[in-house]
Structure formats: structure tokens, C-alpha cells
């Protein structure tokens, strides 16, 4: 089966967590909106009757249409060896992914604390205040939690020896924070050596390494979740 992934064609965004899982699994897929008339096809699916997805990303797998990043990964994890086999293990991993989802919202809110309908330039003072709180309180809380899980499980990955989709998502978190906040992240990395090591291990996995070097990997930019604004990185 060839999957169809629907997400905005010019950003990594929340769709990147799904792309990383598909790439690691070596699954056949097409990034629909990056092709001719793909965005129109994506919008049409969201306007369909019945059970349409609310927003991208969503994945078409045969007759199934699955929305929400964590939900998609729950589906892919079981089918491509990226999740534990037990029900308890699957639910635990899903719980971790939902925690990452919460953190992604907070990352986005560093540059758009007053809402996405306003330009960044219209909310700079609020963004500086939010970013300071983010690095003082939220980053240590979220990344400290995952650092502790790595230490407790004493494995190469969050749940132990075997890589899961959560490890791929944490790779993206580290990579994104390095892009958006190079100074702050450099100073903070000494507090999360386990996550830094996890990032490096994921980056060298054959399928991920090939993906990162390919044109399929969209570069970080100032339209996505991770945005680099010098005035926020000091």
C-alpha cells in the first residue's frame, strides 16, 4: 500500500513527525500537496461530507483517512515496528507523543503568543516575554522529563533498546530548537546529554540519514513551527 500524506508543501511543521516515521519505516508514500494541484486536493478532502479531517496533517491509508499527528503515528507505529506490541506499551507511547504535541504548541507560541492571526511583528514584546518564560520554565520541564525517561530506561532510546516514533519526534524537537534558538540551545544542551545523544543516533540511522540529505526534507524556515528570530535568542 502506498500512503498519501497531506500537509502544507512549504513547511516541515507538524507533518514532519509523520514524514520521519514513514522514512524510517521505508514506507512508500507520496507527499500529495507538494505535487501538481495537491493543495487543492487536500482542501477538497477537508471539505468533504461524512468524517473529514479538521486540518492537515492527515494520512490516507487505503480507505482510511487518519488525522492528527499523534493519531497517525499511533496507526503507523503498530504497522511498521515503531511501537511496542503490547496494548499498555502502545498507550504509553501515545501518551508520550501527546506530551510532545503539547510542547510543540508551546514552541509555536514563543513567536506567536497572541495568536496566529497576527504577524510576528505585531507581537514582538509579548514574544520576548513568552520566550523568556519558555526557556526558564517550560523547556527544562518538558525536555527534563524525557531526559529522565532515557536515564531510567538505560537504553539507546526512550523506551529502551528499540527505536520508536517518539524517538524520531524528539530528534525533530532537538533539531528544531537548534535552528530556532542556536544560542539558548547550545547553553542548555549540557543539561540534556541523553537527548543530544538520542538526536545524534537517530540522525545516523540509514533511512533517516538518506532522508535528511534528500530534497524530500524541507528546510527549516520562518513559516513553520521553529522560527529563528535573533531578538528572541539571547
Task: Give structural notes.
The protein has helices at 15-25, 38-46, 69-79, 87-111, 124-153, 165-180, 182-188, 193-203, 206-212, and strands at residues 3-6, 29-31, 58-61, 64-67. The protein contains 9 helices and 4 strands; from the N terminus they run E-H-E-H-E-E-H-H-H-H-H-H-H. It has 234 residues and is an alpha+beta fold. The protein is 54% helix and 6% strand. The radius of gyration is 18 Å and the shape is globular. The model has no long low-confidence stretch (mean pLDDT 96). The longest helix is centred in the middle third of the chain and has 30 residues, at 124-153. It folds into 2 domains: 3-79, Glutaredoxin, CATH 3.40.30.10; 87-232, Glutathione S-transferase Yfyf (Class Pi), Chain A, domain 2 (Up-down Bundle).
Write the layout of secondary structure elements.
Layout: E1 3-6, H1 15-25, E2 29-31, H2 38-46, E3 58-61, E4 64-67, H3 69-79, H4 87-111, H5 124-153, H6 165-180, H7 182-188, H8 193-203, H9 206-212
Parallel strand pairs: 1-2
Antiparallel strand pairs: 1-3, 3-4
